[in-house]
Amino acid sequence: MREAKCETELASGRGGSALSWTVADGVIELALHRAPCNELGSESLEEFEQFVTALGRVQEKTHALIIFSEMKPGFCAGADLRELYHRSQVMDKAEAAKGVRDFLERIHRVLNLLDAAPLTTIAAVHGVTFGGGFELALTCDLIIADKMARFCFPELRLGLIPGFGGIPRLKRDLGNAVVRDLLLTGRSFNATKAQQIGLVSQVVGEGEALRVARATAAQFKKFDHATAVAAKRFIKPIPYEELRREIDLFCELFARPAVEAGLRKFVESTEAQPYLP
Asked: Which position among 84, 106, 139, 183 has the lowest Cβ density within 10 Å, counted as fewest Cβ atoms?
């Protein structure tokens, strides 16, 4: 009875102010819609936790998940740095450090569940796909990008590293050379470059990513579900040990004065989109 109720809730479009989801014909669509560009903060995390709880009860009855953004600037600009900064200012250092670790533990749990979900997952991305948004896309089996998408890890400008699992997942998928380029230069890759290096499976016209993702997901119904799940588990191991080490290193770096200075500079910026390189 509980499972049936959860399946009904998933199908009916549950969600909140940051994200919502629907399911039809075995395909779950998770829409991100938090202005201005789906920054990942405490509100988004709570709603993601609700989603993966519902997903865990019905994922065996679905064959695909599509994650996309309804916001014009892009897929996701990353972590909510303003929230992170303001919270750190009202806590002592020990409380702030504990809060950061707790947040990372929770978001890693969500992203690990998405990464390992027994169905085929697609990120349909456009525009800004930076930091934590890039890390969210990396949990998916396929990334379909419109030609205006850009990918970036800008965290070094804040004195940090990506903290939502980006380094281990990018190493798993592409290798250390690409990780070093993105991480140490802070530059962004466009969709064409991302496809050339094997990050993106398809580049499509502007505004076409979701349509193509839906068409791709429809193809998955032709295959035996158990076989698809077995294949995914074989070719996509989850680097749990490295993910744990990433959390530890992020927390170690977060305690440094350079991070507070970097966050303050970001928050006080008068630029319309200070996350852009």
From this structure: 106
